[in-house]
Amino acid sequence: MSFSERLRELDGHAQAELVRTGELSRGDLLRAAIERIERLDGSLGSVAVTSFDRALAQADEPDGPHPEERGPLHGVPFLLKDLGPTVAGMEATMGSRFLKGFVPAQGSELTDRFEAAGLRVLGKARTAEFGVLPTTENTAQGATVNPWDHARSAGGSSGGSAAAVAAGLVPVAHANDAGGSIRIPASNCGVFGLKPTRARTPLGPAVGDLMSGLAAEHVVSRSVRDSAAVLDAISGPAPGDPYWAPPVAAGTFARAVAEGPGRRLRIAFSTRAGSGGRLDPACATAVREAAALCAELGHEVVEAEPAVAFTDLVEPFLVLWAAGVSSAISSFALLSGRTPEPGQFEELTWELYEQGRTLSAAGYLLAVSTLQRAARGLAGFYEDEAERRGYDVLLGPVTSEPAPPLGTFSVGTPRQQLTRAVEFCHETPLANLTGQPAMSVPLHWTEAGLPVGVHATGRFGDEATLFALAAQLEQARPWAHRLPGPGHPRMETRSC
């Protein structure tokens, strides 16, 4: 096995440790990742934009802090999703023909925090156009395929990031999530993905809030500890942010991973059908096996579900969604000096843009207040701890089915495409509507070799409990060493 191939199996912590001990240089790590991208991505389609020279130039700069003062991911190769945060001087297309060749002059606070943590941006990962669909098949760049089955979707909208991590091109990659876009591709591709609490991470300087708090920024990763370390590095408000998440009770997320829950958690699980009225047996099996594993680990596990359901909130959610898409396109039109035209966009994206332009302010605020009431109603499912009715975690499916075939979401009219997408997302957008942290944990593979993540939602502000539980599950059923492709072990046909 080649040097680059051996690195493919390591998470970010393990790769950074090779730099700290002097076994490798930062340049060695980056050149190996570049070799993997050039060799493997032609069949995956996960990378949208490359910036290898910029990253290698950073690797040649002085090391900066003393090794003991560097973060745990210092020197690790990284991809930024081509949606949201920008890098000054690097093309930003948002997965759209409309922005082909657009190079922003200003970077983002989040990008600065990633790079301050020592992560080295090799380029950008593909996304669904403006993050609209739960698959990454934009017409500007082509489809990102699932590394485990190239005829299937990698998920979306962070499908490029998840596919790149699953295939071992990089150990961790940026992702964001306004309706499941971290957790859905994490589930489809068999990697770990956690959506943080609302306003845990900054969105500036261009915006302070997206879709009234639906969107959150973080990563997908091979390991739980990588995800926790990144969130420690990027958490906290930036000057001018309109609101921010509560402080971390555990001190750091890395500490939560290292120490575990420290108590018996009260965990609910549910396999109720989502908005499409169906749930694939493989997804139900994944949840039940995860619940059984949690019980084996000593936690109290109860079959229960909150009264609040995403099926009751689809319409107000889509109001925010249309408004967000329309606002994003309008904002980039101003930044780029371009005028949006129908032929520059996918049909569904353009319909949402037009719908968003016709929404009334009163209708938008009514949708926001409806969702806020639902969030308060759902909080009781988690918060009645004093009377032992509240739960620490709710387990459920990430999606209504495993990764679907490519082309699934391009069939029919735009409205039919959107309906199919909502059905596929199951109840995953509920955590965006309420602002709660939620994660996809890769614990199950189907008989056909497709990964199926298990969704876990926690209390508002309590990512630490989710990280602690995820670390327990990872230790009990490891997944980080698994890679798709010849010469690498596939998951077993039950929980791994």
Overall, the morphology is globular
Question: Number of helical segments?
Answer: 16
Percent in helix: 25-40%
Low-confidence stretches: 487-496
Features:
496 residues; alpha/beta; eleven-stranded mixed beta sheet; two-stranded antiparallel sheet; 16 helices; 38% helix; 14% strand; disordered C terminus
What does this entry look like structurally?
This protein is α/β, with parallel strands linked by helices. It contains 16 helices and 15 strands. It has helices at 3-8, 12-20, 26-44, 52-59, 109-116, 159-166, 183-189, 224-234, 253-259, 281-296, 314-336, 347-358, 361-383, 414-425, 430-434, 463-476; strands spanning 47-50, 77-81, 120-125, 137-138, 142-143, 145-146, 149-153, 172-177, 192-195, 216-221, 266-269, 300-303, 393-397, 438-445, 451-458. Strands 1-3-2-8-10-9-14-15-13-11-12 form an eleven-stranded mixed β-sheet, sandwiched between helices. α9 runs parallel beside α16, α11 (314-336) packs across α13 (361-383) and α12 (347-358) crosses α14. The longest helix is centred in the middle third of the chain and has 23 residues, at 314-336. It is globular, with a radius of gyration of 21 Å. The model is unreliable at 487-496 (pLDDT under 50).
